[in-house]
Amino acid sequence: MFTGIVEELGKIKEIKYGSKSISLTIEAEEILEALKLGDSIATNGVCLTVTEFTENEFKVDVMPETMRNSSLAELKIGEFVNLERALRLSDRLGGHIVSGHIDGVGVIRSKRREDNAIVVTIKPPEELLKYIINKGSVTIDGVSLTVALLEADTFDISLIPHTRQVTILGNKDVSTKVNLEVDIIGKYVERMMGFGDGDEPSSIDMDFLQEKGFL
Length: 215
Prior knowledge:
The chain has two domains: 8-85, Elongation Factor Tu (Ef-tu), domain 3, CATH 2.40.30.20; 104-188, Beta Barrel (Elongation Factor Tu (Ef-tu), domain 3). The protein is globular and about 55 Å long. The longest helix is centred in the last third of the chain and has 10 residues, at 184-193. It is built from four helices and twelve strands; from the N terminus they run E-E-E-E-E-H-E-E-E-E-E-E-H-E-H-H. Helices cover 13% and strands 38% of the residues. It is mostly beta strands. It has a six-stranded antiparallel beta barrel.
């Protein structure tokens, strides 16, 4: 589990290609502190398992399923990636609850400056739009961000100078693909609303949620 607060930018040192998978070697510093084999590191928002490491780099394997459902297949040697270690129970939840399991790949449609911010418009897969709400949380390449504006088929996020400095999002170009993870709570609510006891319909509906103060 992660928070969407990037700890460090890593650099892709080596990519080994399988028939449908890849193995990445990533240079890093801060996240290597107290690292252990089997630890999880969110890499551009994708939860990956450390298979080897030294004092200045670590290796992870990217399976075919992850290759199909994320933008990691487009990584190149020398490219930087957002890195975050798994959440500790003692940590502050500075972003929001992030699983590291990508829901889909979006595309940057436009970028524009607004005073000290850069407003980025992203087109997500159509099936993810129902989970995205104005002022709600969304994870983009592992970064927890707030939806500034929701349109029919796109949404905007606003990048402050700090986010542009400590993540790769500020350097993303128009037409670039980004990994998206929508709010996990919305997915659980949708799932529960579709199930009841046995053949009975679920008692959880919009009226129930409003009555209990969730809407």
